Amino acid sequence: MLTGLHVTGNTAMHRLPAGPKLAALALASLVLFFVHSALPLALAVILTGTLYLRLGLSVGEALRRVRPVLITICLFGLLNVVLVSPLEALSSTLRLLAILFFAATVTTTTSIADFMAVLTRLLLPLERLGVVKASDVGLAVGLVLRFVPEIAARHATLREAHRARGVPVKLHRLLGPLIISTLKDADSIAEAIDARGIRGH
Amino acid sequence: MTTRDLVLAALFTAIIIVLGLIPPVTLGFIPVPVTAQSMGVMLAGCIIGARRGAMAYALLVVLVAISLPVLSGGRGGLGVLMGPTAGYIAGWVIGAFVTGLVAERLVREGQSGLVQMGGFFLASILGGIVVVYAFGMPVVSLVTGTPFAKVALGSLAFLPGDLLKAAIATLAARAVMVGYPLLPQRA
Question: Is residue B67 part of a domain?
Answer without folding.
Answer: yes
